[in-house]
Give the backbone structure.
Amino acid sequence: MTEAEVIALQQENERLKNLVSSLESQLAWLRKKVFGSMSEKHLPLNPDELQLNLFPEQMSDDQKARLEAEVSAEQKNIDKIIGRTKEKPSRKPLDTSKLPVREEHIYPQGINADEYSELTPEISDSLERIPAMVYIRRIIRHKYVLKSDIQIKSPERKAFEIAPMPLAPVDKCIAGASVLTDIILDKFMYHLPFYRVIQKYRESGIVFNDSTMNGWFSATCERIKPLYDILKSEILSSEYIQVDESTIPVIDNEKHRTVKGYMWCVRDALHGSVCFSYDFGSRSKVTAHRLLLGYHGNVQVDGYNVYDDFEKIEGITLYGCWAHARRKFVEALDEDNQKAAQGLVYINKLYHIESVADDMKLTADQRKDKRKAEAYPIICEFEKWLGDTWLKVLPGSRMGKAIQYNYTLLPRLARYVNEGRINIDNNLIENAIRPLAIGRKNYLFCGNDDSAVRAAIIYSLISSCKAVGVDPREWMTDILRKLPVYKESKMDIKELLPRNWKNRTDSSN
């Protein structure tokens, strides 16, 4: 065998070893996805000019030894995360204090009142429910006519008088505000497909078809869209927003199948209001630029590369999400437990600082000072660890991808130390998106792009209600009755946004 053939075989052997390692990594990941717990909670563990020169120096021996000791101390927590077993929750008594009580008195048979004295009765409660009642709201407008002698004496007076018809939430629609609200919330808060909502109404003796319900829903969305537009404008005028996107299946009538569309979500991180936006299901850079066109302020995002362009836009400061950074190391635990645990120790320290700041109820300025003094040095040490560890892993492995992710985004991730109002992660907007994920598992898809746009409108308003502690049913029923009046009287419908509506309701009580 020639020397050239030996070298070729050695190269092929090295390639196959890397391939096996990569496939083992993928297999470990798939097993974790299918069978393992994916929880990330309780895992082991001058910035004014934030320019991090990645990997400038290696970790010292003392730093390595200290990190190893911290990993060992936290290993039990890692084991709990990997093989977590849920404890059986204790059953708490139901709070029935706000429910009406209907008493039923039961007496033993054959009791002679002259022979017995009654003792304290034994009381047992059971929870009962009456199905929702559907009724007809019949408006009877009484009509009056002037008496004939008065008409003769005063011919200029109006002969007939009748009360004006109350404005309907939707023109020429028999469904009132409460029914329209019920239909919308059944689908977008309780995630029922329309056919199940129709079945529910059939139980009450009301039969209508899909087209009727879709017509009511479309007309209602058209009525409340001006509120959605104002909400979106207000959110995009906030000094600090969080942005994320999630998938939503949409039927493509030309392809006769569902396609993956994307719903964008923007959250006002200072007040909690949420806006969903569907731009023909696109996830492109053009869509992101169109969504944030003209925005100036602080934007917190994950590592999706379409946001990279905003680093170059004057007036926008981009912040990263440490929860996404942490998730990459969680994904690598099965593949390289020791190194992944080391990365998690650093990130866990940053979260511990935030937890202490929350407990101390620090102001934004106090939190910023604490972050600069305590969190920034940890990030700088984490930077050294990334450079040291990168040389010991395969680039295509889970661990390699975790380091690469953090390597690329570290300046953006670290920037939060300069501003006490900025959250350490984007978890709050992910919570706001969660109803979208639940919905697509139940009603499965949107019928077309127009349906997805209407879904964005409803999700935005419901999420904004929840953010300020407003009952979506009470709010939507009220504003559907008021919107026609506001429109006819040319009043400012901005008063009907969930946060403003709550303030007006609270002040009037």
